[in-house]
Amino acid sequence: MRDFFAVGGRRLSYLDFGGSGTPLLALHGHYNEASAFAPLAQALAPRWRVIALDQRGHGASDRAESYERDGYVADVAAFHRHLGFGPVAVLGHSLGGVNAYQYAARHADQVCALIVEDIGAIVDSDWSFTTSLPRHAPTRDALASALGAAAPYLECSFRPSEDGWGFSFDIDDTVASQKAVSGDHWKDWVSVGCPTLLIRGTRSDELAAAHAREMIARRAGQARLAELPAGHVVHHDAQVQFAAAVSAFLSEPH
Q1: pLDDT for 57-76, tens place per residue?
Q2: pTM over 0.90
Q3: Phi-psi region of 19 (alpha: psi -120 to 50; beta: other; left: phi over 0)
Q4: Helices 69-83 and 95-106: crossing angle, nearest 10°?
């Protein structure tokens, strides 16, 4: 079920995949939106009820004037308040992973478990892929063809327009967001107090193995690492293994 709520004069959209299970808030990465978590929601049901946010400038949510860190974190806080839940588990991929661990660090009483998918405590975004994206294509097939091997990772964000096909995100907004997420976020990462699972794709071009190990070491027994045979989008490349790792972690007492 899709629903909306207002924050700061903007409307944000989210997908509640439903059920009576324990809530799990999910935050997507750049180029994606809430619907990217549909396979995970199905795999985790009925024990877990996935509720995924279309983050600012993505999916059916409004564009924003700013894509700085504090704005994203404030959106997550508003999302959580709107849902009316007590402390919850939060999962985030890439951009959403930074948003998730910054929310957990800054709102420690609101997050009981954290899952971060393939993003580091130091982020160095390369937005050359973003600026190379086609801004318009005459058909959906033409858009997919222009993207080549990247098409399966972006197809949830394909959108028709009056004169063809494009994306549900704005390319210039995405570059601004990637620039804003780049930087050293160690302070937030080490401030997280809840049990944490860091999931890394073994073929990732975003999170290096050595950096992932350092992230675990700096959390001294509070965090663990799972490495799965995947690229950066682990929940897409290794759906079954990813869902199993998430389910096993969430099923532990926290």
Answers
A1: 999 999 999 999 999 999 99
A2: yes
A3: left
A4: 70
